Amino acid sequence: MSVGAVSTLSMESIIGTISGILLMSAGILVWYLRYDYRGIIKAKQERHDWLNEQAEKYKREKQAWLRKEAEKYRKNTDPDDF
């Protein structure tokens, strides 16, 4: 960005001024795109973490249900049947 400012101030022709303005605009654009990209990556990571948390929660609930069903099955089966 400082290159654009130096180019604008050092060259006194119209081409130098336009060149400096374009360089500053490009610097601002690149900065914004990098800033926006970081926000997108952060949102994606938060969603990924939330999905992993939900999967773990579902897994724990299913394991608890299976343990409960196995215990009911053991109580209902007669040991003499085997």
Structural description of this entry:
- With about 80 residues, the chain is mainly α.
- It has one domain.
- Helices cover about 90% and strands about 0% of the residues.
- The protein has helices at about 1-10, 15-75.
- Helix 1 packs antiparallel against helix 2 (about 15-75).
- The chain is rod-shaped and about 105 Å long.
Q: How much is the radius of gyration in Å?
A: 32 Å
The unreliable regions are none
Q: What portion of residues is helical?
A: over 70%
Mean pLDDT equals: 84
Task: Chart the SSEs and their pairings.
Elements: H1 2-10, H2 14-76
Task: Using brief descriptors, characterize the structure shown.
about 90% helix; 2 helices; single chain; about 80 residues; mainly alpha
Concise structural overview:
88% of the residues lie in helices and 0% in strands. The chain is an all-alpha fold.
